[in-house]
Amino acid sequence: MTADREPANLPRILIVDDESAIRRFLHTILNAEEFFLHEAETGHAALAAAAAFRPDVILLDLGLPDLDGIEVLKRIREWSQVPVIILSVRDREDDKVAALDAGADDYLSKPFGTGELLARIRAALRRSIQEVGEPVFSSGALEIDLNLRRVTVAGAEVQLTPTEYDILRYFVSHAGKVLTHSQILKQVWGLAYLEQPHVLRVNISNLRRKIESDPSRPKYIVTEPGVGYRLKLV
Amino acid sequence: MKSAIKYFACLLLVMGATAVGEIVRLHLSPPNMVMLYLLAVVLAALRLGLRPAIVTAALGVLAFDFFFVPPRFSFTVQDKEYLITFFALFGVGLVISTLVSRFRQRTEELAEREAETAALYRLSRDIASAPDSSAVYSAIVHNAAECFQVEAALMIPIDGALQVVEKNGELEITAADIELAKWSFKSLRKAGHGSGSYSDSSAMTLPFVVMGECIAILILFTCERGAIAEKRLNRIVEGFAIQLKMALVRLELAQQAEAAQVVHAREKLERALLNSVSHDLRTPLATVTGVLTSLKEDGGHLSDRARLELLDTACSEAERLNRFVGNLLDMTRIEAGAVRLRLEPCDVQDLVGCAIGAVEQRLGNLRIDVKLADNLPLVMMDMVLMTQVLVNLLDNARKYAPLKSRVEISANADKNWLYLAVSDQGGGLPGKDLQHIFDKFYRVPIPEGAGGTGLGLSICKGLVEAHGGTVSAENLVTGGFRVCIELPLKEMEQQ
Fold this sequence. Notes:
By secondary structure, chain A is α/β, with parallel strands linked by helices. In chain A, 40% of the residues lie in helices and 22% in strands. Chain A has eight helices and twelve strands. In chain A, helix 1 (20-32) links the parallel strand 1 and strand 2 (36-40). The longest helix of chain A has 16 residues, at 114-129. Chain A is globular and about 50 Å long. Chain B has helices at 3-24, 30-48, 50-68, 82-128, 133-148, 175-187, 230-296, 304-335, 348-359, 383-400, 431-436, 456-466, and strands spanning 151-158, 161-167, 191-192, 204-210, 213-221, 344-346, 367-372, 379-381, 406-413, 417-424, 470-475, 481-488. In chain B, a hairpin with a 5-residue loop joins strand 11 (470-475) and strand 12 (481-488). Classes of the chains: A alpha/beta, B alpha+beta. At the A-B interface, helix 8 of A face helix 8, strand 6, helix 9 and helix 10 of B.
């Protein structure tokens, strides 16, 4: 399916899903929000479209008739860093983790709400546009100055251990994106710690105690059960 | 009694009769002495058996002739009439011996029969109380060993191959014994020590043949003991075989009955599932369809407010439908034993946070208080599934607790267990409901009718049990209802 007109300044989205009902629904809600869309039904069509259509964001369903969604993702990642948002059904945490570790930027569980989808697309677009991060990150009352290595909550400085700060900095550089346990472990502690998930749990728990007003209802560092963590943009 | 001793006893008996005859010789005429020898023959027949009795009769004739028939102390006979007496003494002795020893044999047989009956009775009593096949085998071996006073073992054909299922104590069963048993199994004949075939073996193998089929092989280690009377052996083996067959048939029937009960329970569950599915899937679908068609066919009559309200209803019904499908999937997975745990060390506070986050939007004005003990350890669990457990409990509290009340999530731990509890301030439950709330499709009726699927708590139970934990429910003295979860704390090194 090719578009009849090609507005140059609209974000381009590639929708990959074999269910026509889902494609129709996505088409409706995303068109209304002024995106330029392209659809693919199969993995091979998706790979072709990723090269020809040059999307800014790809919405990728994992259950495709010809190729495994993760395989599609890996092949795209061989030559492109375009943000990929996985659309998957509930209870497939293993798939989600595999997709994220293979380079997906985010995932949404079906069924999802329109608002959530738009928010994820916008976050992905924002990340891909501002490759060079701002030196100061802020979300709600939380503020992180990457130059000064200073973290404040509502203006009050918070003392973090070097590890806690490294975790937070990694979150900031991928703000809004889900990071899997192994991604964080690899980045902050190194490969040797991949099998030591408890050090991550303990540090996240401590970090929350320092920056969250109610650690039982975290506002900034939210857990994606069975997958990882996400620094939320409030 | 060894036969030499027996014949020596015959000699003694004859000597005794002669001694008594010597004492009474002056008062009795020699022919009457014959009675004394007859008495000795009777005693020999009673005590020693047929042959010793015959020997006693012959010895008696000789002694009578030697000691009492004139001329005394010589075998010569003056009066030829005594020859008739000799024949009479020997003939009567012979007849008495036969009769008495036959009587004795009968008595012995009776006693044996009685012992066999007692053995079979003991066996049937042991077997009747045997809960499973291994107890039956043990009863057979134990009783056989006791009955024959030997070591015993039992072999059963399992999938076509004979296997030792039970044996006495430390008994060693050699390859040769097993070969012997195989031969018996094939030929349906006994083999080994004391039988016609392979009689150089130390063991005897007895096939248990019922209706032409060998159902077991009994091995008796008889070499230490004399041979067992053929008839007796056959009778006992037959009795034991029948008892074993009956016991096995009984166990099989019991098993079938149990299986039938399981099938029945499953059918009942399936009916409940179908009822629930058709009701719980269709109700929200009906609402969603209703809303969508009314919006589609609306000719501009609906106010904006009404339109929004309709959409809200449709959204929340669709969410309910999604939750129900999720519950059904979880339940199916638990039922099929297909719950695969992805155990990872989890922060309990994180777990509670995730559960609250998942239900927050539908909580309305219910308040959640979190009371976690300090220094809770990391707990090995499947975070996704345990979040589901807490979400189900919170959803339950939301449905049954009064508006604007408080739900408390608390957690503490000791050395081996993590204790999680969710308590509400609702009215609690009647005792009869409390017993069943973890059953599938059991719903506690509530006035507003916004009932659940009857799956939430049984899913909780299934998931917690998959973690090796337990879940229980109780009414609180202060009013309200509490569900407690205990999860085992596993060693962290496992990771």
